[in-house]
C-alpha cells in the first residue's frame, strides 16, 4: 500500500515555474525578452505600399538586429477609435501614423512622447521648420514629420472655354467673379466646397487665407472682427446668389470629386495624389484637365497637410520607437515614398532634391507631372493653416453651423459671427479652467 506524500513547497514552485514557462513558450502572443517587437501602425497603405514597407523594415532590422518591427495597417475610418482605445488602455503601438489635427487632441492629455528631449536639435532642423512646428503644442513636440500633401486647383479646360474663360481664378476675389460668369454662361456651378461640420476643413482654412485669426493665445475666439465678418459674408453671398450648389450644406468633399468627374463643375480643389483616381474613373475628364495653384486669399497663404509618425508616451521602447521613426522619415526613405505615392517629403534636403528632379524633367502636358510641379512649387510658402489645439474639430463645427444658419437666412452674418464666437468661448473657458 502506497502512502500519499504531500509535495514540499520547493517542489510546487518548480512545477509552477515549469508550467508557466511552457505556457509562455507555446503562446506566441505573449512577448518574452527574446522576441520583443516594435509595433508600427499606418493608415490604409496596404496592399499598394506593402513592398515599400517590407523593404524599409528589412533594411532597418539589418542595421538594428536587436529590434524587430511588426507592421499593422489600419483602415482610415477605424484609426481614430482604435488609437483612442489603445491609448486609454495603455496598449498603444510604439509608433503610429497620425495627422497633427487629431494627434493634438491627445497631445493636450499628455498621450505622446515629448520629442524635444528625444530628438537632437540638429536632427529637428533637418525638417521644414513650419512643418515641424505644426506638431508642437506649447512646449511639447509630439510628431516627427513624414509626408506632405498640398492642394492644387484642377480645372476643366473644355468647360472654361464654353464660358469664354481661359484661366482659373487664383484668389477668392477672382473666384467670386469667375463663378458668376461661368454660371451665367453654362448654367453649371464653378466648384463645390463643403460646409458639413465633420467633413473637410477647407472652408475653415479659407478664413485664415482671407486674413482671419481663429483664436488668440488664450484660445478664445479671435474671429469676431471685420475680417471675420467679411469672410463669413463671402461664402454666404456665394450661396445666396446661387453660385454654389445647394448640397454644399449636406454633402462632403467626396461629392466635389463626383461632380468634377462627371463634368458638372469646372474646378476641383484637391491634391496631386488623387489624380490616379480621376484618370481611372473619368479618363475623358482627365484628358481635358489641367493643374493650377490653389486658390488663396489676400494673405497669399497656401495650405499643406502633414502626416506624422508619433510615439505614445506609455511605450516601453521609446528610444527604439524614435530610432525607427527617424529612419522611416529620413530624406532617402521619404523621397522614395514620395515618388511612389505622389506626395512630398518633409525634410529640407528632400524638398530640394524633389524640386531639382522635377525641373530636370522636360516640359510635359501629362496631368500628373503638371500637378506635381505645381504642388512642389507651393511647398516653400505652404503651412498648416489650422492651429494644433484641443477641440479644433469643435471650433470647425461651431463655425460651419453658424455659417449654414447665415446662408439659410436664419441669422444675419454679424449675428452668426457673434454666436460662433460666444459658443466657442464657452468651450474655451471650460478647457482653460481644467
Notes on the structure:
A hairpin with a 2-residue loop joins strand 4 (about 135) and strand 5 (about 140). This protein folds into 2 domains: about 40-150 and about 305-375, Periplasmic binding protein-like II (D-Maltodextrin-Binding Protein, domain 2, 3-Layer(aba) Sandwich), CATH 3.40.190; about 150-305 and about 390-430, Periplasmic binding protein-like II (D-Maltodextrin-Binding Protein, domain 2, 3-Layer(aba) Sandwich). About 40% of the residues are buried. The protein has helices at about 10-25, 50-65, 75-90, 100-105, 120-125, 130-135, 155-160, 170-185, 200-210, 225-240, 255-260, 275-280, 285, 320-330, 330-340, 350-360, 365-380, 390-405, 415-430; strands spanning about 35-45, 70-75, 95-100, 135, 140, 145-150, 150-155, 265-270, 290-295, 300-305, 305-310, 345, 380-385. It is α/β, with parallel strands linked by helices and about 425 residues long. It is globular and about 65 Å long.
Give the % helix. 40-55%
CATH class of the largest domain: Alpha Beta
- Second rung of CATH, namely the architecture of the largest domain: 3-Layer(aba) Sandwich
Low-confidence region ranges: 1-35
Which features characterize this protein?
434 residues; D-Maltodextrin-Binding Protein, domain 2; 2 domains; six-stranded mixed sheet; three-stranded antiparallel sheet; 19 helices; 48% helix
